[in-house]
Amino acid sequence: MKERLYIKNFGPIKEAEVHIDKVTILIGRQGSGKSTVAKLYSLFSWLEKSLMRHSLTEKHITQYARFRKTYCAYNGIDDYFSDTTVIDFDGFHYSFSYAEGVLRVWERELGNDVFNISKVMYVPAERSILGSVDHPSLIKGLGQSMAAFSEEYGLAKLNIRSGYMLPFESVGFEYDVLNDMPKLKLEEGKEIKLSASSSGFQSSLPLLLVSKNLLDMVRNSSEAKDLSVREREALQKEVESILTDNQLSEEVKAASLRTISSRFRYTRFVNIVEEMELNLFPDSQKGVLYELLENAKSLDGNRLLLTTHSPYVISYLTLAVKAESLARMAEGNTVLRARINEIVPEHSQIASSDVVVYEMDNGKACRLDDYEGLPSDDNFLNERLNDTNVSFDALLEIEDELRG
Question: What pTM, to 2 d.p., does this model score?
Fold first, then answer.
C-alpha cells in the first residue's frame, strides 16, 4: 500500500500529488518545494501514529487551528497557508483533508487488524552543526525539528557507543561517554574528535547513527518501550478501563489487550532525510545511500524519503535498481550473483517497483518516467551537468572565431 499526499497553493507549491513508495526521491532547485513535501509527509505520518495510539484524538487535532498553529509551526511551515490552500493525505489507517481553514480526519476502513505504527524521523539539512561542536546537547536556540533530531542523536551515541563502521573511508565510531565526546577511529589505531574531522563526517555521522539506532529500536520494539509520557498515559488508561470492566469476559479482555499491545509496538521506520549528500565526495555519497537503502528494505513497511541536489544520488540509485534486476535474472548462478554483489551489496539492491523519483519545478511535482525499469536520465540534475558541456562548446565556437 502506498501513501498519497496532495498539496495545492501551499508555500512554493501550486499543485502537486506525490505517491510515497518504499524509496521516494525528490529533486529540484532550492525553494522548489522538496522540503515542503518532506515536512508534510513527516507531520501526517506522526499524526497518524498518535491517533493510532490514542495519545491524540481527532477532536484535539482539528480544533482551534492546531494543525496550522501547532503542528505545522513545529516544522516552520505555518506561514505557507493561503485562503485557497488544500492538503490531502491518505495514510495506512487515516485520511486527512485540509481546506478552507479546516482540517478533517477520518479513519480508513481497511478490513484488517494489522497496525502499521511508524517511528518517524525528520533529518534536517542543518544537522552538520551537531557534528561540528563537542557538546551539541548544550546548543541553544535550535528549532523544534532540529532539537528533536539532536535529542535522538544523543540517544544514538549512548546506545551504539562503539563498533559502528561508517559505510565509507573505513572509519569507525566510538563515544567517550564520560566526556560526552564522539570520536572517529581511523586506520593504524589513530582517533580524532568528530568536531575536528572533515565536514562530510560531521554531516553524515549524526544521520547514520540516528538511522541505525531508530531502526534497531523498531526491530526490538515491545509494549510501552520508548513511549512518550503522553503515550504511556494513554496506554495505562486503556488497559485499566479493560481490566476493570466487569461486563467483559476474560477471553474478550485478553483479545482487547492484545489489540492495544499491537498499537503500542512500532512496526516500521519512516526515515525522511534532507540533502543526504551534504559535504560528501561522490564515493561517500554512494556508501551512505546504500546503507539507507538497506535500512529501508529491512522491514516491509519502512519508508525512505530523500531530498537531493546531487546527480550522483540518482546515478547510484540506478545502479541499485539495475543490480536487483540482474540478481533476479541470475538466480541460481552463484558466480554471477557474486559479481553483481561486488558492484552493489545485496542488501542495498532495490526493486524498481519500490522506487519513485519526483522532480519539483514551477510549483508542481512531476514523476520521472522509467527507462526499462530504471530512473530516467532525462531529469533536472543531469540537465545541469550537461550545461557545462553546452557552455564549453559555446566557448570553443568563440575560440574558433577569434582564431578565424
Answer: 0.86
